[in-house]
Specification:
CATH topology of the largest domain: Aminoglycoside 3'-phosphotransferase, Chain: A, domain 2
Structural class: alpha+beta
CATH architecture of the largest domain: Alpha-Beta Complex
Number of domains: 2
Shape: globular
Mean pLDDT: 95
Strand order of the largest sheet: 1-2-3-5-4
Number of strands: 9
Distance between the termini: 44 Å
Strand content: 5-15%
Amino acid sequence: MEAKELIGSLYPEQERESLEILKIKGDASNRQYFRVSGKNGSRIACIDPLFRSFDPDAYPFLIMRNLLAEHGIRVPEILDSLPREGLLLLEDCGDLMLQDEIALLDDIGLSARYRKVIDILVMIQSIMPDGSAIPFSLSFDHAKLMFEFDFFIEHALRGYFCGILDEETITALRSEFETIAALLVRPEHFVLNHRDFHSRNIMLFRDEPVIIDFQDARLGLPQYDAVSLLRDSYVRLEPKLVDDLKKYHFDQLCRNRLINMEFAEYLRFFDLMAFQRNVKAVGTFCYQTLVAGNLSFEPCIHPTLAFLSDYIDAQPELADAGRMLDPLISRKTS
């Protein structure tokens, strides 16, 4: 059954011919999204092949949506579904992303918006493990961090940037990645993380942030999502604002008793986590460009690499990896 016919099957037969079903841009996944407009307004249809292989009660997207909603976090409503077809019908929360709003705000408005978003982030990070497998059995453990580093090696170093680093250097760099990953596995500090908490996954609907793309949530350092937000591959915030927002996040974590470290240590782990997260993002962008043929991510590669110098200069644990990555970091956007 074609996508439009499948989506139409969720509507009364007398409405199907009048539906306007338009494909909309999705993310870097296998999911397809459509805006469905009818006499009762518009909805978003999502076709996710993964949904077909899950019992609905075990489907990560639904588990996380319900968990977040139960804790007062604004997420799209589920209006209907056909699990066997991998189809979900969701509330339409518009097209305005946080990424789009940034250019419309002055300095005061931008700071206020990001502080409100950080408040939502801390609400997510305040959700305590309840014994359920998803998301609380998942974490940024050493295996997961190294999977992401290895993805970068395969698709960036041996793919998009093939020939820039020789195999001996790549082997030595992977050893450095192992050391960095070990530094980041600190379960005593772990909280719940969205995992992709950036400006394209925060919609603004009726001036209220709505969180999307949360199905891969897992435990990790609280800095992980803060890095996603403040060292975002899709936008570049002014350094002074980033510094202010780091301190705001730290203060909110302290206020909610979610962190047991001094601010200096928070900043150290922020930089280490940012290095890992941005390296992982470059791997994803290179994969999307070369393997998936999605060129929309290519412009993000060099700006994301440019972030790395700040962390490398600030944290001695990153010096050797930074030296080996310098041929990539120093390359100019064509």
